[in-house]
Amino acid sequence: MAVSEEESSSSSSSSSNYKSRSPPHYLAKSVLRGTVVLQVLPGHFRSPSSNDVVFGKETSIELVIIDDDGVVQSVCEQPLFGIIKDIAVLRWNGNRHQQSLQMQGRDALAIISDSGKLSILTFCSEMHRFSPLSQTQLSSPGNSRHQIGRMLTIDSNGYFIAVSAYEFQVAFFKISMSSGNDIIEKRISYPSETEGDTNTSGLVSSIGGTIWSMCFISNDLRQSYKEHNPVLAILLSRRDSVVTELLLLEWDIEEDNAHVLSQYSDAGSLAHNITEVPGLYGFAFLFRVGDILLMDLRDAHNPCCVFRTSLCSLSTAVEELNDAEESCKVHSVEEECIFDVAASALLELGDIHKDKDDDPMNVDSECGNVNSTSCHVCSWSWEPENVKNPRMIFSVDSGELYMVEIYSDSSGPKVNLSDCLYKGLPSKALLWVEGGLVAAFVEMGDGMVLQLEEGRLLYKNPIQNIAPILDMSVVDYIDEKHDQMFACCGMAPEGSLRIIQNGISVEKLLKTPPIYHGVTGTWTIKMKVTDSYHALLVLSFVEETRVLSVGVSFTDVTDSVGFRPDVCTLACGLVGDGLLVQIYQKAVILCLPTTGVHPEGIPLSSPVCSSWVADNMNISLGAVGHNVIIVATSNPCLLYILGVRFLSAYRYEIYQLYHVQLQNELSCISIPEKHSILKPSTPHSSCPDSTFSVPVDIGNTFVIGTHKPSVEVISFIPDKGIKVVAIGTISLTNTMGTTISGCIPQDIRLVLVDRLYVLSGLRNGMLLRFDWPSTSMMSSFESTLQKPCSGLSVPPSIAHTNRNSSGPVSSERMKENCPVYLQLIAVRRIGITPAFLIPLTDSLDADIITLSDRPWLLQTARHSLMYTSISFQPSTHATPVCSAECPNGVMFVAENSLHLVEMVQSKRLNVQKFPLGGTPRKVLFHNESRLLLVMRNDLSSDSYSSDVCYVDPLSGSILSSFKLDPGETGKCMELVKVGHEHVLVIGTSLSVGPAMMPSGEAESSQGRLIVLSLEHRQHSDADSMTHGSKASSSSQRTSPFRDVTGYVAEQLSNSSMCSSPDENNFDGIKLEETEAWSIKLCYSTKLSGMVLAVCPYLDRYFLASAGSVFYVCGFPNDNYQRVRRLAVARTRFMIRTLTAHFTRIAVGDCRDGILFFSYHEDARKLEQLYCDPVQRLVADCMLMDADTAVVSDRKGSVAVLSRPSHVEDNASPESNLTLNCSFYMGEIAMSISKGSLLYKLPADDAFRGCDVANTVFNVSCNSILISTLLGSIISFVPLSREEYEILEAVQARLVVHPLTAPILGNDHNEFRSRESAVTVPRILDGDMLAQFLELTSMQQEAVLSLPLGSPKTVMLSLKSSPPPITANQVVRILERVHYALN
Predict the structure, then answer these.
(1) Which of 1093, 1101, 1149 is CA-nearest to residue 1127?
(2) Bridge partner residues of 444 (DSSP)
(3) Angle at Cα 491 formed by Cα 488 and Cα 494, nearest 5°?
(4) Looking at the whole model, is its pTM more than 0.90?
């Protein structure tokens, strides 16, 4: 297990216990995947008609849709376990998709990656994610400069693919037209190994330079596919030339060779990109610095320029140019760091103007401030489906967006350049989608969706991007059961403070006082089946029912509806237009509400009601559907099916259609809405327009749960009676073989998304999914009917006879009436309290809120059972509330209060943004003031560029600030305890330029150490202390919201969108109005070297570094106006980080890695104890305890190091730390902190005896959170040795199983072990293990049945063969560890 806090409480106990402690084991799980979008691609990936968009994010891909309002909605996102080099869309056109059953007319993705393979991916509807269709080896993994695998392009017809190296090499691939499994039919490389440097025509045949860009030049449409030889245009920069040249290369398919057709170069500006003009065959745009050339390449032997568009005529007086270039400078890199795609676009034109020795970790560097006077195109996108008059929108490096249109006149093609359409930051990627929407992505801030209207681009919606995350602080969430993270995100001028929370975001609108005790149920009802909005909200209590109107204000209308107010309602709903039904213990009431409730009501003074009563029996439960009412009794066990018929004007009656005897008592009933069947699938469906057979007539079907326990699908036809269509038996056991108790269904739903299945929530907090069996299983079952013991000998809960049936049953009728036995494909535990299922809409494919210990959103379109936490507190009841003012509302009942929230499913990230200006560099949470302290750099003020400010965490407003001197840049800050108070210690730089030399040694520079006091004064203001409530006494029963409506309306304007009214104050006092906090200078001194790190030490000292020196400093007599340097130590290279735990000090420098020091107070000396076993470019470091350090490097790895097991007294500075485990992320971790965004789940009594559950609930104090430059947040969760060994064996099988192996063809073990020795143990990959939960039970068993040690399986370093692993055992660990971090 990971070391606990108690074990590290003293150095003596640490030394004595260290020998007996096992090394720590961790599982790394992505809490939030990177938000940097490097590529954006449109296509029809889910179906031939779906308009999808894929975001390429270096280590993951995300499938999204952009709706008509410009809102980006995520469909799915999956990790790649590799790094994307380039990505393109392979169009599967109509003339070929009929021949491929695999593609079914859908587009595919072509990706080249660090695996050295060309991967063709297709969207798998069953798994709801992309899966590999084919993989072609291009080169050895990693890709050197001369191996192909750097750049990718596909011709517009989808017939050919070209892949290039960084230099010298190009490969052609021909796509197969046959229906076989081989996608690649033929390939050829150029130049071949036997080809010389020149050919007979005198043209240079070898690609002797760096390939900057390439594209195919389409052939004439009149030319057939077989006659076409592809022509590739390559933009080349030769080593001995100062200009780029255009090379046209042809692949002669019949001769099976490639040769150069022509070369084109111009002594003018530097060309950097080329793109084909869609629809205008043989033409291409050549982008150069300062202009755009329209090239005529129809005669590939004689290329020529037919039109030149100058960019120099564009407006040069751009106000935001400086800020835009400043925001991009973080991506300039050292040559040694080109591995990081986001920071190392080797051929990115913007890098030409930057210092190649820039440090990617030095986000405050001054060397990127030189403005470029050139103007070049940095991104572009063509108008979709427009080939007659091609139009393109492009962004220039100064941030303007323009449009060009190509037209023809008598003299040939011409280009028309528009005026500026929009002004902002430079776009690194653009996408023009249908409906005139344009998605623009910038490097260091949020992207945006723009609408093209009347020659202008208008802002519609943001596309959130929180990268880079420069610092973070995890704080207990106010009034909730989980934490939230405050993060410094982005760069000037887009710098912001982000509040990051777990799960799906909700916008809190209303909250009542906690006066609603004993709520037993909540429902919302429409007045007509076809209504878009709900009309009524029904609240049931133990001995009371209240009905509220839904609208701007919730008004009690119980008397006008007709429901009995003095009973507990079991169920209610709409049975027909204007006809409402209330079911309670004694009767069923049919009500016709008046017009006072709704305009569709009856024009009478009071409602009209009729009732139906069971004969001397109490109703136990019921359900209301369209034209049908179903109720059940428990003693005796009967099921009644009721109908409604018209008698006269405003008079209806309830009558009995059928009743049957039950063999088992019912626990729940659900009737699918008939009109929901006609609704289209949700955008998140795997195949929005797919057609599939449904095994039952849903319009005549309902589902029940029984005490048997079982779930059953029942068909009811008035003329034929009822029939059990399908049965799912519930019989669950734990790992000990003991039957799990409490498996009675609490709630049940029928779901139709690509297939029909049954969901059931159990009373013990478990969630089950039943699917119809496959055809083979059905046939096997039917064969058993010929045996004497038929399936009817074990009857279902409902007998197969009704009151109209009589006589013997024939064998044919027996076979016809025999139900299908459903297949249990997934079991999940989401809590220990009963699991309720609440669909968000009436549609059968609607996502479902699942309530147990806390709320989840179950994604019905996903394979198996996949659900995401909702960022809201545990609730007992919930119901959707749809109104004109709140179309996506949900009413939760939590802690005796009613909460109206709005689900923000379209919000891809649960992140709230507070723009701060400049670059927020550091953030701390000040407990005394409950405010945030933020260090900002790169401010636009003339008098200062850095400051430290107080920020309100609720509104984002800046309350006070301390400004640094002109030319001074803030580098670090920490809160340090002095006596009973805290002061803020700041380190700055007074020098311009880099902090260190290329060798890693510190530059000659100066910094300043500053001590600030945090002071506050209280003042009394009666107005600020009071907030009135507007109560209404217009009726005897008042709305539960009426007491807070005025309060909410007043407070919401001053609060954040994600905050409830109660969160705007603490203990009823608004901080910003009652307490004024200020920052005051107490002490400052200059040091020789930039002060890059400070750290509190032993509650009475602090550490500060300056260059390659660090000091132990103290405050004499607790006087924070004086600072004394008590000890000093020096390292060989620039010190990047300082961290301490008890007496241990860990120093991270830019070359030697982590060094352990100890401070001797008596002698006032610092002593080096241990050093890093390898050279390491430290990015950040944190001590878990006195013996264990977690360190990230600038190559994308995280490692856990600890002191060796020998006695500390014998240690020497030459002693190496032990590398316990490592994990390669592929992203630079900027910040490491202790803690987690963990939800605390209640302990499960049923499994307390199992070893696998003993350590999960300690993760909150031993977990590690890491944030990266690409915007990822990764949690490292500690595991016990037993858990680690189980999951290690599962991971070894998952990485080779076809359903879960890395889709880019990477060797998973090689990928995660980069930058460390092969013998170093690995941190488990939580993203790989999470795929196990996405599999069905049968698929999970298939994965676990893979033998370890086979040629295709990774061997585990286990001394003996492990005991058999069960699926339940693995699922239980992953549920508790993985989903707790959901």
Answers:
(1) 1101
(2) none
(3) 95
(4) no
